[in-house]
Amino acid sequence: MRASVWRFNFDGSDGEPYATNLRNAVGLAWELGSDRLWVTENGRNDLGEALPPDELNLLRPGGTYSWPAC
To answer: Rounded to 5 degrees, what angle do the CA atoms 29, 30, 33 make?
Structure first.
């Protein structure tokens, strides 16, 4: 369940991953008037003030977002 965004029924049953391999996904928001889900990701630590840059990702159901593979 780590490094992932999951979706569940309202009663907490039938959990399934919505998107996986996210590193420190901290901001999560639905785009108003659409079904698009956005997330901010904090990049790796200890490489300098601007390295690597943080990301803004549009999540897609079943999407895999590279961490820790890259």
So the answer is: 145
Domain ranges of the chain: 5-64
Give the tens place of pLDDT for each residue, 51-69.
777 788 999 999 998 776 6
pLDDT of residue 13: 96
DSSP assignment string, the chain:
-TT-EEE--TTS-S-EEEEE--SSEEEEEEPTTSS-EEEEE---SSS-SSSSPPEEEEE-TTEE--TTT-
Q: Percentage of residues in the chain with pLDDT exceeding 90?
A: 49
d(CA 30, CA 50): 27
